[in-house]
## 1
Amino acid sequence: MAVPPPDASAAVRKPREERESVVIRFAGDSGDGMQVAGMQFTNESALAGNDLSTLPDFPAEIRAPAGTLAGVSGFQLNFSSREVFTPGDDLDVLVAMNPAALKMNVGDLKPNGILIVDKEQFNEQNLKKAGAAANPLEDGSLAAYQLFCVDITKLTATTLRDTNLPARTVNRCKNFFALGVVSWLFQRPIEATENWIDQRFKKQPDLAAANKRVLRAGYNFGDTTEIFASAFEIKPARIAPGKYRNITGNTALAIGFVAAAQQAGRPLFLGSYPITPASDILHELATFKNFNVVTFQAEDEIAGVGSALGAAFGGAIAITTTSGPGMCLKAETINLAVSVELPLVICDIQRGGPSTGLPTKTEQADLLMAMYGRNSDSPVPIIAPSTPADCFFAALDAVRLAVKYMTPVIVLSDGYLANGAEPWLIPKVSDLPQFPVTFRTDPVGFFPYLRDEQTLSRPWVVPGTPNLEHRIGGLEKEYLSGNVSYVPSNHEQMVRVRARKIAGMVADIPPAEVQGPTSGDLLVVGWGSTYGAIAAAVKQAQEEGKSVSQLHLRYLNPLPANLGEVLKRFKKILVPEMNMGQLVRLLRAEYLVDAIGLNKIQGLPFKVSEITNRINRMLEARN
Amino acid sequence: MSTVAAPSKQQRKDYVTDQDVRWCPGCGDYAILAQVQKVMPELGVPRENIVFISGIGCSSRFPYYMNTYGFHSIHGRAPAIASGLKVARPDLSVWVVTGDGDGLSIGGNHLIHILRRNINVNILLFNNRIYGLTKGQYSPTSEQGKVTKSTPIGSPDYPFNPLSVALGTDATFVARTIDVEAKHLQETIRRAHEHQGTSFIEILQDYNLFNDGAFAGLTEKDTKAETQLVLEQGKPRIFGKNRDKGIRMSGGKLEVVGLSGGYSETDLVQHDETDPHLAFLLSTLPPAAFPTPVGVLRCVERTPYDEIVAEQMRKAVETQGPGDLATLLNRGDTWVVS
C-alpha cells in the first residue's frame, strides 16, 4: 500500500490554529525511545524555523524495571516563533506512554493542556507498577486536560502486521508513531526524521522501513482520524540568518576543545575518568583522533587530571573532564598545576551533591569549591558558559587563557547545559580567535620562572628542548630560578605573584555588560546555566515597564573590572542560583553590596515564573 | 627508547645539577643517584629528551639532582603524570622515581595501571621498607610486627612484595637490584631502558636512620654470595660462596639443593625471563630459607600502549584524512536561516 505523503493533498484540510510557542514533553519508560522521539522532534522544529531549547530528563538507573516510576525518562522541548530562552516552565503538551510516565509528569501540564496517552499501556499490570489505585483514564482525574487516548501500541502493531519482525521489535517502533502524531499536530516536516532513520538503521533496512512506516502512520493518523479537530501552526522565528545546527553543551565543549587545540596549533590531550554527566565529552573526543586528539581513559579521577598535567608538561593542550565528586579528587593535582604554572583546563559538569548526590540532575553548587577548594592560597580562573552553544566558546576561551597565563582554568558547566540543546549559528573557522602557542627555546637569560612583564606568566619550555633542562615541582620555588626555596620572604612573594597573575587576567576579559538600563531598581545577577530563565524573566519584567536589568557573569574569577561599579548603580540586587547561595556570597564579600539570593536546590533548572515572582516581590517591597 | 643519537659524548658531570643533595648521610639514595648519573650518558639519548618524574618522599627528590627535564609531583601520582607525558610525547625517555610508600601505598593504584597498560616508561622503586620523609612510620613493605613511631607495639599490617605485585599486573619487565651493587644496578637500568614497555625495577635500599639493616646480610662482602641469587637469562640458578648451591624445581615448588651432594647443574632450572610462573615463584621465595633473587625476573615483548595509541591516530588520519575544523563544526543536521 502506498502511503500518501504528509502534505496538503488531503481532500479536506483540518483547520490550523496559530500558537506563538509550545512546550511539549515526551515521557515514557526508559526503554520507550523518548529521547530519540524528543530529539527528532527538536530537529523537525529547528528545520521548521522555530527557535527552541530542550531538556532531557533521564532516570539515574540505566534500566529500571519497565513500567516503574523509577524508569521514567523524559524529553522536553520549547519551540517558538519568538526568541526562546529556556525549555519552558509548564507544559502545553504531554505525551505519556504509560501510567508511570503520566503520574511523574502530569503535574507539570497546564490546565486545558493537551495530554496524549498510549491507551493500551494503561492496563492493570502497568497501573499497579505505577502505584495507581484506579485507571486515571477512567476515573475523571484528568478532567482538567484535553485528553487524547490513542492506541499507539496497537496501531504500531497493525501498521507492521505484514512484516516478519518479532513482536518485541515491533513494540520498539511505537515511539515513532507518537512522534508521527505529534509531528502532524504541529505541522512539522518529517523528512529529516526519515533520513535520520535511514542513517541510524543503515545496516538493518527492514527496521528502517518499519520505523519509517510507523512514523508516517502516526502522521496520517493525526491527519485523517477525527480525534484531533485541528492542527497547530508555529511560525518561524526571526533569528539571525546563517547556518544552524542543534548542539548540546557537552558536544559544544568537545568540539570547542578540538577547535581550541587547532587554533593553538597543538595536539589535544584529554585525561578523563567516566562520570555522569561528563562522560559524553570523553566519548565524543574519542572519535576525533584524526584531529590529533588523544583521549586517555585513566584508572581514576586523579590519574585523569594527572595524565593531563603530564601531557601539558610535554606541550599538549591538556584538559580533563569530570563532575563534582571527581573535582574533589582532582584538587591536589589542580594545585600542583597552580604551583608549577602549566596550562590545564578542568571541566566540571556540575550535578546535585554532596557526595554522589543526584548524578543525572543539575546543580551549580561547585562554585566555591572551584574558587577555594584547594589547600593554601591557590587562585584559579573560572569560566562558566551560560547556554549549551556558549560551551563551545567557553572551551576556546579557557584554552586561550590557560596557555597565555600558564595556569589551570576551571570551566563550570552543569547537567542542564550538558544535555540541553539549542540551535547554534555555526561560526566560520576564520572568525575564531587564533592563539598559536610558542615554546621558549632560547637558553640566553633563561630561568624557569622568569615572568612575562605584562602577563606575569612563566615561559613554557617542553622537554626535548636542548640546553633548557630544568626541574619543576610542587615545593615552593625561588622567585626566578624555580629552585626549591624555604625563604620566608620568597614564599610571600610567590603567593602574591601567583595571585597577581590571575587577578591581572581581568585585562583580558570583557567588562560586565548589563542587559537593559545600566541603572535602576533591580539588577538580577546570575552565572552559568540560569542565564535563560533569568533572561526570560527580566525581559518579561522590562516589557511590563519595570526597572529591572540583567547581568550575567561568564568570568567568575577574576570578576570583571567594572563589576563593583555596575552593582552600585542599582537599588537592589537579586542573585538566583541553583545552590544555597555561592555567587551571592562572593559578591557580598567582594563589593559590600546587599545582594539577595534566590535559591533552588531541586536538581532542576529555574522556571521563569519562579524568578518573575521574586522580581515582583522585590520591586513591591519598599526596602 | 629514543632513536635520536646523542650529538656528542656525554659525561656523568653533564647530569649533575647545581643543587645540594640533601639526603641523610649514608642513605642508599646517594649510591643510586651516582649510578643513574653514570649510566645515563651511555644510553645514547640526548640529555634534553630525558625526563625524570617523581612523587613525594625522600626518593622523590631525585629529579632535582638530575640535570635533565624533571617533575617533582605529588604523592603517588608520578605514574599518572608520566603516562600522560609519554602518550603525548612518545619521543621522550621517561623515568619514574618512587619509593615503597609513594609507589605502593598512596600511589598503588597508578602503579598497577601503568604496569598493566605497558606504557613505555621506566620505573625505579626505591624500597627501604620504611617511611623516611615523615620520619619513620612503617610502609607497605615493612615486615609484620614492625615497631615504629606509628606502631609502638608492632605493625599489624601484612606487607606485600613489590615484585609479586608487578608480576600480578602482567608487567612486561620486572627486575630487582640493590643500591650498593653498582655494576648490577647499572646493568639493570640499561636493560630497563632497552625494554619497550613499562620497566619496573625494585631497588633494595638500606636506610641507616630509620630502618638500619633493612636488608641486613644481603650486601655484606662475607655473606652476600650466600644471600643473593643473581639471575641470568639462560643460566642455571646457582649461588653460594663456592657456587655450590642451586635452586631446583620439585613438585611445583622451588627448593635449595647442594651441588656437592649428588645434584648437578643439569638438575637446576635455567633462568627464563619469559616464564611468568617461575618469575612469580622467585618473587615469593621466603627470605629465611632462600637467597634473595636479584636481576631480571621477567622480560617479555608486548606492544606498548603509547605505540598502540600512536598507531590508532596514524590510522585515523589515513582513513579519514586530517581533521577539518569547518567540517566538524558543520556536522549533523544543519539548516539555513535566510
## 2
Amino acid sequence: MKKMIKKVLFGALLVGAVAVMGACSETVEGTEKDSGGKDSSSYPTKPIEIVVPAGAGGDTDLNTRTMAKYLEKELGTTMIITNVNAAGGTTGTKKVLDSKPDGYTVLSYHNSTLISKILGLVDYTYSDFDVAGMGVMDKGNAFVVNNKSEFKSLDDLIAFAKENPEKVTVATEVGSFTHLQLLAFEAATGTKFNIVDVGGASDKITALLGGRIDIIPTQLGLVNSYVESGDFRALGIMSDERLKAAPDVPTFKEQGVDLVMDKFFFWGFPKGTPEEIVDTFTKALEKVVANEEYQKEMEGFMVEPVYLNPAEANELMEKEDKFYTELNPQ
Amino acid sequence: MVGKYSDVFSGLFLLLISVGMFTATFSFKALTVSKVGPDFMPKIIACLIALVSIAIIVSAFNKLKEKKSLEIQTVEEETSVTVEESEEKTYLPVILSLALMVGYLILMPYVGFLIMTAVYLFFQMYVLSDKSNKRLVLFIVVSIVSSAVTYFIFRSIFYVMLPSGILG
Amino acid sequence: MIEMLLAGFTSVMTIKIILLIVMGVALGLVFGSIPGLTATMAIAICLPITYGMDPIAGMSLLMGLYIGGVSGGLIPAILLKLPGTPSSIATTFDGYPMAQKGEAGKAFSFAIVSSFLGGLLSIIVLIMIAPPLGKIALQFGPFEYFAIVIFSLTLIASLSGDSLPKGVMAGLIGIGFAMVGSAPIDAFPRFTFGFSSLDAGFDLLPVLIGLFAISEILLVAEKKYKNKLKVDIKNISYKVTIKEYLDQKWNFLRSSVIGVGIGILPGIGGGTANLIAYAAAKNASKTPEKYGEGIPNGVVASESSNNAAIGGALVPLVSLGIPGDTVTAMLLGGLILHGLQPGPLLMQNHGDVVFGIFAALLIANIFMALFLFIGMKGFIRLLSIPQNILLPIIITLCVVGAYGVNSRLFDVGALLFFGVLGYFMVKFKYPLTPLVLGFILGPLLETNLRRGLMLSQGDFMPFLTEPIAAFFLLVTVASLGLKFYSGWKKKRRLKVY
C-alpha cells in the first residue's frame, strides 16, 4: 500500500513539475488544431516522430528542431524529435527505413546518408527514401586555422603543402562530410595532407585551440565566436558566393580553387509513403522556408534557408552522390 | 552450478571465447591507412583474455590442491558452510523470471507497453513471492496502476515513444 | 566578480525562476534515483521545453536537473545496492553495507553533505578560475588521454575484490564488449556477426543497469522473498558528529579535486570520477580492508567526486564552448538555440547569463541538499516495501530507461543480456565494477591510441615523450610496482607463519 502512495506522490510530483514547465513554455506550443476530415488527406491526425541521427544540441539537431517548431504550426500537430545518435547516424537512418510508411516517422539528416553507402557501411542511400525536400543548407563550410598560423590564404597553404607533402596536419572525422571535403581539396589542388581523425565538431575546436593540428574543416556557424574572439581565422568557404553573415570570408573559387561543397539537410519518409502525405509535408516545408521569422532564426545560425522540392532535392543528391563516389574515400 | 570447479569452468569458457574473438578479427578490414587498424586492439584484448583465463585455471587447480591437503583437518567447517549456502536456493524462479523477461521483450512490440507491463509485473511479483506473501489482489492493483502511470507519464508528457502495440 | 555574481543572483531571484530550479532539482532527483533513468535523459526530455523560455530561466531549469540528476543516484545506491546513475556506482560499495548494518541514516547524512560540499567546491572553482582551468583541458590530446586512461584502468586492481585475475578478466570483458559495433575512426562493424542492430554497439545505460539491477532480481528470485526485514527501520541512527565529518576532510578534498579534474577533461565524465575517487581513497587509506564493508569514507569519496564533476564539466563549456560529456553537449545546444554563441567570448558578451547560470547552480545545490535531508526518512521507508513488489517495478522502469536511450527495443534486449551476464558473473564470483570501468574506458583507449598514431604518422614515441603523458605513465608504473611489492611482502610474511 505504501508503495502505491509513493507511486501516486511521484506521479503527482512529475505531473506538477511538467504542468509548471508547460505553463512557462506556452509560446512554443501554440499549435492550431483546425485541420479536420477523416480520409488520408486529413494527414496528420497524430504526432509525427522526427528521427535525428545525431546528438541533441548539434547542428543537425538545432536545424531540425527549429524547422519542427514552425512545422508544428503549419501541420497542426506535435512534432516529436528522437535523437538516435549511434554508429555515425546509420542506426537512426535504418530506424526510419524500417518504420511504417504512414507519414508519422520522418528522417531529418544530411550528406552522411550518401557517404555511408559509398563507404560500404550500409546498403541504402537517399534514393531508398521518399524524399520530401530540403529546407536549409549550410553553405559556410570553411577551412579554419589558428590565428597564430602562417597560412593567411589558400595560396599560402597550397604552396606550403606542395613543397611539404603530408606535413600539414588536418583534422577530420574519418568518413564524414569534412573528410570528403579534404579529399576533394587534395584532388583539386594536387596537394597531400596528413589527415588525422580527432572526432566531432567540438573535438576539432579543442584540437585547434590546443595547437595540435594546423587546419580544421568545419562550418563557419560553429566557430564564429572563435573567429570573433581572434582565436581562429577562416581561410575560405566552399560555396558559390560569400555568406551574407560573413562577408569578409572569401570563397575557395575566388582563390582559384574550383570547389563547391554545401552541407544539405533533407527530409525523407520510408519508401512507400502515400504521395499525398509526402506532398502535404513538402508544402508545409515550403511555407516554413518562406516564413520571415524562420529565415531570420536560421540566419542567426549562419545557415541558409533554401527550399528544394523533392525532385530538386533528388537531383541535387544524385549529382553529389556521383561527385562523392568519384572521390572514392577508400 | 557453483561447485569447486567453477573457476576451472569459467576459465575454460573464457579461453574459448578469446580464441573465437581472435579468429573473428581476421575478417576486419581497415578503411583507412594507419599504423594500427580496427583489428589491433581486439587482438590484444583477445590475447590478454586468453592469458588471464589460463591464470585463473591454474590458480583454481592450485587452490584445489591446497584444499585437499587441508580438507582432512577442516571437514566439519566445510560441511557447515556448504549447508548454509545451499539453504533453500531454487533455480526454478530464476528460470521463470528470465522467461518472463524474455517474453515481455518479445511480445512488447505486438501487444504494446501498457498491457505487457501490467501482465509482466503481475507474474514477476507472483514468481518472487512465497506462500506467505502472495497477495494477489494487491499485485493486480499495483501492476495495473504502475504500468498505466509509467506509460502515461513517459508517452504523453515526456514523448518517449514507448511501443503502443494493439492500442495504437 | 562579486558584483557580477550579485547581479546573477538578482536575475534568478524571481519566483518563476526559483520555482523552475526547485522543479528541476526535484525532477532530477526522481530521474537520478530511479535506476535506468538518468540526468542525461531528464535533460534531453526537458531541453525542448526550455526553448520557449528566456535563456536564464531555461538554463536554470537545466542546472537544477543536472544537479538533481547526479545526486539522486545515491538513494537507491545506499538502500538497494542499485546505482541510480553511472555516477553512483561506487556509492553502493559502502553505502549499502552501511544500510545493512542499520546505518542507512548515517550513510545518507555523509552522502548528502559530501554531495553538497563537493558540488559547492566545484561551483566555486568554476566561478573563480574557469578560464585558466579550461586551458588545461586544451593540453590534453590523444597521447595524454591514452596515458590517463591506462592509469585509470590500473585502478581495476583496487576494485577487483578477492581475486586480482578475476578483476582483470572482468575489465577485459568490459573492453571486449565495448568493441562490439562500429570501430572507432573507420566505423568498420566489428563482432556484429551480420546483425545490423549491433552496428551501434551497446550503450552504457543498458550495460550498467543490466549488470546491477536485472542480475539483482535474478539473485533475489533464487531465494524467494521472505516477508522479513533485514533492517529495523525504526532504529536507524542518523547522528553524525562534527568530528566524524572533520575526519573526512582530506578524503573529501582529494575526491573533490579528482572529480573536478576528471570533469574538466572532455570525454571521461562523472561515471568514472566516482570510481577513481573511491579507488584513490582506498589506496590512500591505512585500512583498505575496511572498504566495502560499510565505511563512511567510501561514501564520501564517491559522492563528493561525482558532484564535483558537475562544476568541472562546466569549466570547458563556459570558458571555451567545449562540452565535456553528453549532458554539457545538450546544455551547449540550449545556449545556441537561445542565440548565445558559446565560446571564449561567452563570459564577455553574455556575462549576465553566465553569472545567472552560476547563481542558479548555487541555489540548485542548496535545494538538492535540502530535499534530500527532508526526504531522507521517507527514502528509508522504501525499505519497508516488499522487494517482491518493488523490484519488478524497478525492472519495468529500467526497461523504459533502456528504451529511451535510442527508442529501440534492441537496447532492452541488451539490458536483459547483461542482466544474465551479471547473474552468472556473481555466481562465478567475478566482480562487476571492473567490467563497467573497462566498458567506459576501453573505447577511449583504442580511439586515442589510433588517433595518436595518425597524428604522429605512425610513431609510438610521443606516447612516452610528451610530458603529461609520460607523467601519467610513470605514476601508473610506480603505483603498480608499489602494489606488487607490498603484495609480495604480505605473502612472505604469511609464509613465515
